[in-house]
Amino acid sequence: MVGAVVVHKNKIIGEGYTSPYGGSHAEVNAINSVKDKGLLSESTIYVTLEPCSHYGKTPPCADLILKHHIKNVVVGLLDPHKKVAGQGIQKLRDAGCQVTVGVLEKECREHHKRFLTFQKKKRPYLILKWAETRDGFIAPAHHLRAEEKQAFWITNPYSRQLVHQWRAEEQAILVGTNTVLADNPKLNVRSWTGRNPIRIIIDRNLKIDASYHVLDKTVKTIVFTAVSDETKYKPDAAYLLIDFSKEIAAQICEALYLQNIQSILIEGGQRTLQTFIDENLWDEARVFVGNSTFKNGIKAPSLVGTLKETNTLDQDILNLYYND
Questions:
Q1: Choice among 27, 50, 132, 170 that is catalytic
Q2: Residues annotated in the binding site for Zn(2+), as ranges?
Q3: Within a domain: residue 96?
């Protein structure tokens, strides 16, 4: 979401952020929140992303700024969208506004990283997530699992709750066939408050049947497959064909860009995660290291990235990597 703040003589008199899709933009909400509109002509509006200059779902924000005679505009960064791309700033300057660009630009880029990746790289922002043991395993050997298909937890309840928060923050979540068959995950938000992400499943040969949670019709689900026989498709799930003899991650990213999906939390398993890593299609990785050992099992993915931050949740360690 874009954020906007209206300041009059060093005092915040209005603030706002982008409404859900189709609703008012940040500048509109910030200006509307100002009780005394007469102060606007003497105010400065700060906005994280360049005000739009075109008609879309809503009128141009640049026009609203000019309507209220706001003379000073401070912008964090330019909007790379082809319908904006500097035109909003130029419109304000042509009308006599003092426009300053690039204030806290690094922070604004971090805040808008999903949108910027989607616009510039024509793909979703990709977050890898997995948990591994202290001896580097992502899952135990088969004989250690219970007969019932369920998750084998490496991390503690605090870490698992954090993952549910992450799910609520991203547009979609992705796993492969083996993860579904072994763990039967729901891939929804249960330990946090928020919207369930779109479920994306890689199921080349349609091994996953309707008894698994991911096909329970409660959440929008997209299945990538090589099976073109539509009679084998389950109702209320969308099926997209890809060529599994070619780069899988690239095809998935291209297809989901066309579906207007801007961010994905990729939760595994090992083969799926490594596929995105090997194709260099990832932006950040969130790796938990639990306080346990397996001695044998499925090894964790191999990743080279910049370690940005390390945190602890009780006895779990969380390492955050960026793909620079």
A1: 27
A2: 25, 52, 61
A3: yes
